[in-house]
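Sample pair:
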Amino acid sequence: MLTYKGIQFRLYPNLKQQEQIAQTIGCCRFVYNHFRASWEHTYTETGKGLTYKACANALPLLKGDVPFLKDVDSTALQKSVWSLADAYRRFYAKLGKYPRFKSKRNPVQSYTTAIQGKAQVFTNTVTNNRIKLPKLGWVKIRGSRVIEGRIIAATITRKASGRYLVSLKVEADVQPLPSTGQSVGVDLGITNFAILSSGEKMDNHRFTKAMRQKLAREQRKLSRRAEGAKRRGTPLHLAKNYEKQKRVVARLHEKVANQRKDFLHKRSTDLIKNHDRIVVEDLHAKGMLRNRKLASAISDVSWSMFVTQLTYKADWYGKQFIKVDRWFPSSQLCSSCGHHDGKKGLHVREWSCSACHTSHDRDINAAKNILQEGLRTAGAAGIA
């Protein structure tokens, strides 16, 4: 099956390439904001917005009026226009918020460029720990992944930590994984990251909590340097010690995010490889984050990202991913006989069914019920 995959590498541009990246990011932001203002003005005057075609046709005229736009990658500017049109499309489809102006103060800056030519594959675009990018030429990268397929586009990102990344959009032929004949129910939790209907419990590493003490110390340093700059009357973006400490804090946050992402990818891939059907409860994570006592733990465990990974990996590799309704009482029913004993508080971790007297671990029992309900609803829907 042909599909699009994202492959990311750490990028090591030299000083000249860093200047070119910064200039391209600035020009893409200028183009985006220019057409964002034009779109708003046209809507105010006529009651109708612009289109991608109208903006793309006006781009060459804008280059004539603003000469520095000619110094950067032209496809990156076109992608910026497309991004604006897509943002409006998503807003009108109620899939996103109203497009805002881009700010140079945003800690993460990026631009996307197209890789030209139908024959751009691994052998002539990424080789010997280098990648060839428009206007930048060959740039050093770090990574060991082999790219199989045609590279469509590349997104160059400058993180708040000062590091650079390149994310490649690759058109790849993904083959289904062998059938295992196994099904699994997954109960997502906080004490344990995930509990499987097989009885296995995945540890919750609590990456943010493990780094909390060090983060707090470095953030206190950042606050003191901000106060010192304020006393001296120095703008924060000109205070060198403040900017240096800000990068230290950003790198700690980045490390936590990378640890979490690596953990989630490994767990989701393992589930996809070893099971044909994966059933998960459809949790309302956004609503649960309103609970002040659990918000930090829920955001650290990243249920939404895990479910997203399971969704697209199941689609890639020919597996079935099933969601069970969030109101299904998975932890209240007996997985052996289906008897409902009544609502049990969160402090009840083990209990015995009053009907069949089976002893249950609350979380494992919930995972078994999720599996049974998922298979039942899949069967009712005619899913093979």
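The longest strand covers residues 2-12.
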